Amino acid sequence: MKTFAPTLLAVALACSSMESFAAVDLILHNAKVYTAEPGQPLQQAVAVEDGKVRAVGNNAEVLRLKESGTRVIDLDGRVLMPGFVDSHSHAVMGGLELAAANVNTQLLPMAELEQRLREWRDNGKARHGDILSVGGLPSAYWSQVAEFEQRFNQGEWADEPIVFVGWDHHTGWANQAMLKRAGINAETVKALKGEQLATIGHHEDKRPNGFLADAGLDPVLAQFPQATAEQLLEAGRAALRYNLSLGITAWMDPAANAAPGEPLFDFKPTAQTVGILPVYKAMAEKGELTAHVAALLVAHPRSTPADLATLDQVRQQFQGLPNLTLPGIKIFADGVPEFPAQTAALLEPYKNSKKYGELLIDPAHFGELISAADNRGWLVHVHAIGDRAVREALNGIEQARKDRQSGIAHSVTHLQMVNPKEFARFKRLDVIASMQLYWASADDSTMDLVQPYISAMAFQYQYPARSLLKNGATISGASDWPVTTPEPWKAIYQAVSRKGPKGVLNPDEEIDRETMFQAYTLNSARTIGLDKQIGSLTPGKQADLILLDRDVFQVEPEALRDTRVLKTWFAGREVFSADL
């Protein structure tokens, strides 16, 4: 065990002498306590009072705060950490998908996929009104578009609208019955221009082949019947239970003013566009929201500063609710790079199409929008996957920094490809890198559907965690659930190893586990605007804690991914306990 910081003990002793404090409710001791305070060594014990951390220190000093009504728990040397914070999670959508048909990125033989669809049709899991839908398809399926066309446009499926949605939620395939319902035909394709043509797959005569990406997928998803308020509320509850079981006590929901199925890539918000915010409001008002939710509002990529007033009208409807904040906006700068979508915006063209991908924002005016949001005190969270999108996102934030030094934590998320010229800009502009490092794997997606089509430079710097870290960037942990699993320990393992079924994805970009612990605690708390309240174990912050089943400081990297959370506390109250 490391030595203990006298500063924390001094605070504990000072607090114990203040008459204004009530009795300590809970003491957790005989543990390895990771506080997430920078430079702070491991501690042994935590005292909790009225939902907040009263003291952190060694066993003897913290146990001295025990009073007659204090509950004392011996943790038997286990690791205790702050609750994890996910800086990018579509939790309510994830809750809906927990009960829906999903292949969970399995690349099944086409005949087996068809049989699964039959089973899910019959048991109702694939049914959305009269539409059949299956999610979680790996991008490798999109090389089999011809077989999708042959298999699902005839026979028993000819008149059934069918949609297969990719794991990334940016791509999908729809049969002719579904395309007809969505109004997508050859005339639709003929009206597309430039990079937009990539959003609807088509034959030479412009007939759609069923493949859809980004804005091309939106009209299909818009045909789905809206989930009822009851269904959304149960999805929110299911998402909360699942997150707490994973030790996640806070998350940023980056599209909270959009309901499932709404067209995010051409989203035109109004004051009445409230999406899933009523779900969080209902849970908060019922006292059920035992997690912090930082809900962002999606702004159209080409919004003007004047458009922010509309979003503010939405924000005002959801103020003052316990554990719910609305700290800012989210903006899409581009799409995804996997073949055949290739909608991520690149600095060098895709080798096959010679196109650069679609930049959704207007570089000439994006900085004005970011600065206007910054001036309102709002954080901005930008989806940027391609290296050009990352550059233009940083350019926009740079404009806000030139206009004022607000100290607001803006962030860029995904960051699949980052040009080295951008590495040092993250620190200089105080931009947080919100990274889904579970994706940093040598797998079918990166090796087969991305590498052959992009430049060697872009491929070398896929998910460049170490390069960003060496240049002083702050990395926060994120999942993008339900795009992929929200399990933090799988992401932590992937960041440390970068191993996949096809080798190692640039081992030079591996980062250490302690950096990831910081990413999922204090760094993510700052990303969602709550680092003064949560993210580390220090006197005065809320007592959100998790107890682990293994010593994550000592186990081999492979053992990290299977780490289990034994208990989760939110504001000092136990909200999850594993079956032991």
Please give the CATH architecture of the largest domain.
Alpha-Beta Barrel
In CATH terms, the superfamily of the largest domain is Metal-dependent hydrolases
Based on CA atoms alone, the radius of gyration comes out at 24 Å
Low-confidence stretches: 1-21
What is the domain total for the residues?
3
Write down the CATH class of the largest domain: Alpha Beta
Task: Tell me what the structure shows.
With 580 residues, this protein is α/β, with parallel strands linked by helices. The chain folds into three domains: 6-83 and 538-577, Urease, subunit C, domain 1, CATH 2.30.40; 92-221, Diaminopimelate Epimerase, Chain A, domain 1 (Roll); 301-320 and 328-527, Metal-dependent hydrolases (TIM Barrel, Alpha-Beta Barrel), CATH 3.20.20. The protein is built from 20 helices and 25 strands. The strands form five sheets. An eight-stranded parallel β-sheet has the order 7-14-15-16-17-18-19-20. The protein has a six-stranded mixed β-sheet with strand order 8-9-10-11-13-12. Strands 2-6-23-24-25 form a five-stranded mixed β-sheet, covered by helices on one side. The chain is globular. Residues 1-21 have low confidence and may be disordered.
Quick overview:
By secondary structure, the protein is α/β, with parallel strands linked by helices. It contains 20 helices and 25 strands.
Q: Strands, helices and their partners?
A:
Layout: H1 6-16, E1 26-29, E2 32-33, E3 45-49, E4 52-57, H2 59-63, E5 71-74, E6 79-82, E7 84-86, H3 91-97, H4 110-123, E8 127-128, E9 131-137, H5 145-152, E10 162-166, E11 171-174, H6 176-182, H7 186-190, E12 200-202, E13 208-213, H8 218-221, H9 229-245, E14 248-253, H10 277-285, E15 292-298, H11 308-316, E16 324-332, H12 366-375, E17 379-384, H13 387-403, E18 410-414, H14 423-428, E19 431-435, H15 444-448, H16 456-460, H17 465-470, E20 474-477, H18 488-497, E21 499-500, E22 503-504, H19 513-527, E23 545-548, H20 557-560, E24 565-570, E25 573-577
Parallel strand pairs: 1-5, 2-6, 7-14, 9-10, 14-15, 15-16, 16-17, 17-18, 18-19, 19-20
Antiparallel strand pairs: 1-3, 3-4, 6-23, 8-9, 10-11, 11-13, 12-13, 21-22, 23-24, 24-25
